[in-house]
Design a protein that fits this description.
Its main location: membrane. The protein has 11 helices and 25 strands. It has 494 residues and is an alpha/beta fold. It folds into 2 domains: 263 residues, Ribonuclease Inhibitor (Leucine-rich repeat, LRR (right-handed beta-alpha superhelix), Alpha-Beta Horseshoe); 136 residues, Rossmann fold.
């Protein structure tokens, strides 16, 4: 489990168990696919023949095909480079000149290393046919000029390394075909001036290096170049190291520290860009402002989250609007709420609770023991039917309620309906002090995992109405149902 392994191509050592299958490679010299019929001939595209003095590797399904010709003193790109090669390491050789169509037909090549190979010139269409190329390393050579034809038709290229050459001139059309280019290294060359429009087509560019070039201190050049750099600070990773030179030999100063007075006649247009103190100050103010705003938003969000229930209740009490609560489609039920209580608490229910809920702008239709239970029908069955016919069950929980068998049945029925419907239909009102040890286990668990309303709370009525179902507001008070023919009232059992 602690065995590490690595590869020969600059990849870090990782656990053997985490190594992808594509990294397990086998060396080969010649391979001919079973369906290939030209393996007996010298020119055969489907025969994989490793170039002389090179080493080749492949994975099991031949999705990875690596050709390693590093530092083999090659003066030309190997003619027998396998057509299905996916990575070619040709670095450290002495090519001097890359001729046209050197890689024609290598349509699967994704990585090409030509760095440190004494290359002075790249001919037209050198990379023609590399339709899948993603990474191209040409750093560490002796290139002095790019005429614009070198990287034609490399539409998939994402990384191009041209640093550590002797580039002096780069044509404006050099990178125009590289629409997917993400990384471009141009540092440590001999570039004096450059037209920033050269990068106009590289819309995917994320990283550009420009330092260690003798940039001109000419005001005409800097007037366009430096503002462009400052407007692309996320792109130009080494802008703080950019330095200009007066005559390509005498260094001037870091551009980030340059003074607009050194460019007489251009101070007006350069001042906004050439005063780093103002830039830093503005960035500092912006960062502090954004940080303070973000901190304030976080604090307000935390406070609102901690008091979200009170906030929702207040908004509902003032505006009648519920936030983040789904409206239940149960308006077809006969009652808005069934009131479950002990007969010992009847005075509180009749004098305090019922009048406030049945009268006023919000008038609820309640089901009560003494008023709505028909006489002569099984009490247990009536309780179950009444709870099922109600949108909510309001339970007045007290010491007397805990000791009542009928009340326990009412809670069990309401709790069963909550579990069955997966909706918060049970509203618990704590009336008086209650000993936790006397509670039914299901009731104790319900109180721990759900909110309840306590009599005496300053927001008691607001919280209770928020827990009740939505009803239409009326202007005329609903009459209490005192004209029922017969009433029944279950007696509490000890």
């Amino acid at each position: 489990s602690n065995i590490y392994c690595g590869s020969l191509w600059k990849k870090p050592f990782i656990l053997l168990s985490e190594k992808p299958d594509s990294d397990f490679l086998c060396e080969y010299n010649i391979n001919c696919y079973p369906l290939c019929h030209c393996c007996d001939f010298d020119a055969c595209d489907c025969e994989m023949r490793c170039p002389y003095n090179c080493t080749c590797y492949h994975d099991l399904p031949w999705q990875t095909n690596i050709v390693d010709c590093t530092s083999r003193h090659l003066s030309n790109v190997p003619f027998m480079l396998p057509m299905d090669a996916t990575s070619a390491y040709l670095d450290g050789n002495v090519f001097r000149n890359l001729s046209s169509h050197s890689f024609i037909g290598r349509s699967r090549l994704r990585e090409l290393y030509l760095n440190n190979s004494n290359i002075y010139y790249i001919d037209n269409s050198t990379f023609n046919g590399l339709i899948d190329l993603i990474v191209l390393h040409i750093e560490g050579n002796y290139l002095t000029i790019l005429n614009g034809h070198e990287f034609l038709h490399l539409g998939t290229l994402q990384e191009l390394y041209l640093n550590d050459n002797r580039l002096e001139t780069i044509a404006n059309t050099t990178f125009k075909d590289l629409m997917m280019l993400r990384i471009l290294h141009l540092h440590n060359n001999h570039i004096v001036t450059i037209d920033t429009d050269i990068f106009a087509n590289n819309v995917a560019l994320l990283q550009l290096t420009l330092m260690e070039n003798p940039w001109s201190c000419n005001c005409e050049f800097l007037q366009n170049f430096w503002p462009w750099v400052l407007s692309n600070t996320e792109l130009v990773k080494d802008l703080r190291g950019l330095q200009c030179f007066w005559n390509q030999s005498e260094p001037g100063q870091l551009l980030i520290n340059a003074n607009s007075t050194e460019c007489p006649g251009h101070s007006t247009s350069l001042i906004p860009y050439w005063t780093p103190g103002i830039i830093i100050q503005n960035y500092f103010i912006l960062i502090v402002s954004l940080g303070a705003s973000l901190l304030l938003i976080i604090i307000i969000s935390i406070v609102l989250y901690c008091h979200r229930d009170v906030l929702r209740i207040w908004i509902y009490a003032k505006c009648g609007v519920r936030f983040f609560d789904k409206t239940e489609d149960d308006s077809n039920k006969q009652y808005d709420a069934f009131v479950s209580y002990s007969s010992h608490d009847e005075n509180f229910v009749i004098r305090e609770l019922v009048p406030r809920l049945e009268e006023g702008n919000l008038s609820y239709k309640l089901c009560l023991h003494y008023r709505d239970f028909p006489l002569g029908i099984c009490i247990a069955e009536t309780i179950i039917r009444s709870i099922e016919a109600s949108r909510r069950t309001v339970m007045v929980l007290s010491e007397s309620y805990i000791k009542s068998e009928w009340c326990r049945l009412e809670f069990k029925t309401a709790h069963h309906q909550v579990l069955q419907d997966r909706k918060k239909r049970l509203i618990v009102i704590i009336y008086g002090d209650i000993a936790q040890d006397d509670l039914d286990p299901d009731l104790r668990l319900y109180l721990r995992t759900n909110t309840y309303v306590k009599w005496g709370d300053p927001l008691f009525w607001e919280k209770l109405r928020y827990a009740m179902p939505d009803i239409k507001r009326v202007d005329i008070k609903r009459k209490t149902r005192t004209d029922h023919k017969t009433y029944a009232k279950p007696k509490d059992q000890d």
